[in-house]
Write a structure and sequence with these properties.
- By secondary structure, the protein is α+β, with helices and mostly antiparallel strands.
- The protein folds into 2 domains: 31 residues; 92 residues.
- It is 35% helix and 32% strand.
- The protein has 4 helices and 5 strands.
- It has a 5-stranded mixed beta barrel with strand order 1-2-3-5-4.
- The relative contact order is 0.19.
Length: 130
């Protein structure tokens, strides 16, 4: 029969093992957030949001500037023919849109992904780019 003292030792041992093992478990079991929204396909120009929102800059003549701004970390978006702006992100957990679209700045693309809207903002979590 176990005593209260031995019970406490076992509890402490189990707690210590759990604390020490938790980083290993978290690295083995990926935690991936999946956006909740409608699957859509959007066609439009890949824009740098800083330049576009500040001065309306877009198009092939602004490709070099847009690429430099995107490389600096400014958000990338897709501007469709109706003037809608879709902030871009990757579908993989925490993946930046820049990872998928940097080489396509100021070009027209068609992306498929999950559209999420909140508080006047819309973001497309990109699954594929054409």
């Amino acid at each position: 029969m176990l005593t209260k003292e031995s019970d406490m030792r076992i509890i402490r041992l189990v707690a210590a093992v759990l604390v020490l093992a938790s980083p290993l478990v978290l690295n083995v079991l990926p935690i991936a957030a999946q956006p909740k929204g409608q699957k859509v396909t959007v066609t439009g120009e890949v824009i740098d949001t800083w330049c576009y929102l500040e001065g309306g800059d877009r198009g092939a003549a602004k490709k070099q500037c847009a690429t430099a701004c995107a490389k600096a970390g400014n958000p990338i978006a897709i501007l469709d023919a109706k003037g809608n702006v879709f902030v871009a992100a990757g579908l993989q957990d925490h993946q930046a849109g820049r990872d998928l679209l940097l080489d396509k700045m100021s070009e027209e693309v068609t992306v498929t992904g999950t559209l999420v809207k909140k508080g006047g903002m819309q973001m497309i979590y990109i699954e594929s780019v054409k």
